[in-house]
Design brief:
Length: about 475
């Protein structure tokens, strides 16, 4: 492609605020098709020149990049991915939205929105009861979603998957049901210093049963000190509770090793996968995790739905934690016999539409390819860290060698809240505060920090945008 036509296409692409999904499979782009593109999508435009020439992606408003470069990795068509997320098309405070608050919640692709709409407009019904057609369709969709979660987590059986509101509810279920029957006076529960409040506060309730909570320390980089963990494990350890990935430090914990070590001492392990499931392939079978919890809204699915994986033999021996309809086999006025797992733990009408939406989200990740998501996020995180170090007075909190795309930082002389407000004016959504991980922040002498967290649709241009805005703040 001649330099002139390339320049023209770049100009045209940049003049459109956000180009439509003008790339049809096998249909090469020309300046005309780009110019006539509908302004409906956050997707960029791919220019496929005649054989032998370089293909380019154009992100209107952002610029162009060779398709063979970071945006054109075979398989991850980042601009097509962005086109799947309608919310990314908008401007916020007059600027293109840059969503870097993925650790708090992720945006939803169109297929999830469609699945929710289809559920309510075509087959809304209560499930597992009612002998009519819509009840059968809804039950099938709900149980299909359970099977999708099973496959996503690598569990052996769909009966090991309990639908819950999210990671918080999953952990509460385990503390109430398993903890309430298996933890006795003097038993020890190990938590790491980097846990989210959702994996701390529910366990504290077991202190009323005489349980003792011990804390696994972390080093200055935000990594678990395995030697100290080893020392804390003992025959009194009943439960070990570990974040797969820290929501404030981004550390990927060595959970396989830690599970092995805990099992060696006869302890059970709960993995809080709220920040692991969105970024890393999970295989609960290979990990030999006893429990694994995650939230749908952090994996591009709806809010109010998530899942708890529990080993079948544990779920079977655990008592129900909530009682009501849908979780019984037989009821008399005096007594009740309970259904088998997972129904035993799903009292009342659950978030049926949410489960269907979660299934659609996990299918989306599967189609996109978790290995491609991981590779993209790894590259983007490395780039972001390198660029952020160019900002004078910026200090990154959490520099573990194994780290996902959660990047927390503080700026000399600027409060995190002020920095986040300034970034918001630039259309950049980040979070400032304690991130529900007060003990972890306290470990670094902090009560608050800024957190930028990247997801599968984020781009290097957006990182540049963030760094540019932070440089303005630093000035
Ligand atoms: N655990 C971790 C590591 C988290 O990051 C979060 C949410 O930010 C949770 C648990 C709680 O998730 P939810 O609020 O979806 O239940």
């Amino acid at each position: 492609m001649g330099n002139d036509s390339l320049q023209m296409i770049i100009r045209l692409a940049n003049e459109m605020y956000r180009g439509g999904p003008v790339r049809a499979e096998g249909e090469p782009m020309t300046p005309d098709t780009i110019q006539n593109a509908p302004l409906v999508s956050g997707a960029g435009v791919r220019y496929d020149p005649p054989a032998g020439d370089t293909a380019y992606y154009f992100m209107p408003g952002y610029g162009a990049a060779p398709a063979a470069g970071p945006y054109g990795r075979p398989g991850l068509d980042l601009y097509a991915v962005r086109g799947d997320f309608p919310i990314l098309r908008q401007r916020v405070n007059g600027k293109p939205l840059v969503w870097l608050d993925n650790a708090a919640t992720t945006q939803k692709p169109q297929c999830v929105l469609d699945a929710l709409e289809r559920y309510y407009s075509e087959y809304n019904s209560n499930i597992h009861r009612g002998a009519h057609t819509l009840a059968r369709i809804a039950t099938r969709a709900y149980e299909d979603a359970r099977e999708t979660v099973r496959s996503f987590l690598g569990a052996g059986s769909a009966e090991e998957i309990v639908f819950v509101r999210g990671a918080t509810e999953a952990i509460n279920l385990v503390t109430e049901s398993y903890g309430g029957t298996h933890i006795a006076k003097g038993d020890e529960i190990l938590l790491t210093m980097m846990e989210h409040h959702s994996n701390i506060v529910p366990w504290q309730k077991l202190k009323s049963r005489g349980a003792v909570i011990k804390v696994v320390p972390i080093n200055d980089r935000g990594e678990i000190i395995l030697a100290d963990y080893e020392k804390l494990l003992s025959p009194r350890t009943r439960m070990v509770c570990i974040a797969h990935v820290s929501n404030v430090l981004g550390t990927i914990n060595p959970i396989k090793t830690m599970i092995e070590m805990a099992h060696h001492h006869g302890a059970r392990v709960l993995i809080d996968g709220a920040q692991g499931a969105p970024h890393l392939g999970v295989d609960v079978g290979a990990l030999d995790a006893d429990f694994y919890a995650f939230s749908g809204h952090k994996v591009y699915g709806p809010t109010g739905i998530g899942a708890l994986y529990g080993k079948r033999e544990l779920l079977e021996e655990m008592p129900p934690w909530q009682r009501g309809g849908g979780m019984i086999r037989e009821v008399s006025m005096e007594d009740a016999a309970f259904a088998s797992p997972p129904q035993k733990f799903e009292a009342g009408t659950g978030h049926i539409a949410g489960a269907v939406g979660l299934g659609a989200a996990l299918d989306y990740i599967h189609r996109t390819g978790m290995n491609r998501v991981e590779a993209h996020e790894r590259e983007l995180t490395a780039y972001a860290i390198e660029q952020l170090y160019q900002v004078p007075g910026l200090h990154i909190i959490g520099t573990a060698s194994e780290k996902t795309s959660v990047i927390s930082f503080v700026l000399d002389g600027v409060s995190p809240e002020r920095a986040a407000r300034y970034l918001d004016q630039e259309g950049i959504a980040v979070r400032a505060g304690h991130h529900c991980a007060m003990p972890a922040l306290r470990r670094y002498g902090l009560s608050s920090c800024v957190r930028a967290s990247l997801g599968l649709y984020n781009t290097m241009d957006e990182v540049d945008w963030l760094v540019h805005a932070l440089l303005n703040i630093a000035r």
